[in-house]
Amino acid sequence: MVTTADQNLVRKFNTAVVLNTIRQHAPLSRAEVAKFTGLNRSTVSQIINTLLDRKLVQETTLQVDRIGRPGLLLELNPSGGFAIGIEIGVNFLSLVATDFLANVFWRQRLKSDARDNVDTILERAYEMTEIGLEKGTAAGLQPLGIGLGVPGLVDLRHGELMFAPNLGWAHVPMAKLWSQRFDLPVFVDNEAKAAAVGEYYFGKSRGINNFIFLNAGVGLGAGIMIDGKLFRGSHGFASEVGHMVMDKNGDLCGCGKRGCWETQVSPKAVIRRFQETLKQGVPSTVLLAADNDMDNIVFETIANAALQGDNAALIAMQEVGEQLGLGIANLINVFNPEMVILGGELNYASEILLPVVRQVISRYAINLETQDLIIAASAHGRDACVMGAVALVLDDILHEPKF
Ligand SMILES: [Zn+2]
After folding, report:
1. Which residues surround ligand 1, an ion (CB under 5 A)?
2. Annotated domain spans of the chain
3. H/E/C letters for each residue in 363-388?
4. CA–centroid distance, residue 244 to ligand 1 (Å)
5. Does domain 81-200+384-399 have CATH number 3.30.1340.30?
6. Which of 112, 194, 339, 397 has its CA 20 to 30 A from that of 208?
7. Each residue's pLDDT tens digit, 331-354
8. Please, are residues 213 and 244 in contact by the beta-carbon 8 Å criterion?
């Protein structure tokens, strides 16, 4: 016997299928939606009328569809609502507010200090969110939800940040705190996993079902997409690639262990390698620009100097690039991805890093694994995670419509 509950479930499922078909293939006529989805015309029409009512879909001006018939075609409506995406970084807070097509209409980025306590940092993030919500409402849009990318291990069932090594946070009930504060749907995920979802929706890996996204900032995280689904492991903590041990006698990591990959591959590692290179007597223009004070040297200065051909800067970037490439070669051998995307602060110097990474991969990954492999920089640069946080909100509407 088919119950009302069953019918509701089927309708929601079909609505999700129609919405995603329009998202991926717009502009489309109703006949084309029926053809793509395999649903009958009257079901499609009913669903589309609901989507038009809810302003999630809109009709274009008169156009000719793929079958050659003129009519009003369908596409997602940018005014379908707005999403807030937030990244709680180790030393910054970043927020974007976007429309339903992920066009950014408001952004804010502030420095933060990992030595501050959880409440202080969250309070600043709440204030940024309040401004983002005001901007969206002022633009006449309905809030759809808040997405949060955090630098640590997340329990997805409860939206709890279990452990963030570089922040020193443990067991922070993020989803609970944020939904109490804002009374909106809240989605929490690891920063790199969120970024991978963002690239899949509206970045470099649209339509690519097997890829690895690597986010290299203070920490090094990954989102691994396998057959179009994010690989999560048995407790949801999979793909902590930054803590693969590369050197058991290496530097101390934020996780408490030694020689993790992320101690070798980060902006901080570039600074450290650069300082060691200077001590070995390699000349550089960077030290002069920093008033001869090693402590004044920041990653961007070294990256810019490397771009201008500074020897010591190039050596430091080359060495970190090699370590990055080595770890990626191992991941390629395990996962055989179609694409590897690099994001995060380290990506600022992708013009220098990517050729080194490609070279190391060609040396260490099995040849068969690297056929047609694409190594690319993130489409969103340092916004990779916040755009991913937006994707978490949109993904929920697109896959689990509440009507
Ligand atoms: Zn570690």
Report:
1. 243, 253, 255, 257, 260
2. 4-76, 81-200+384-399, 206-378
3. HHCCHHHHCCCEEEECCCHHHHHHHH
4. 7
5. no
6. 397
7. 999 999 999 999 988 888 889 999
8. no
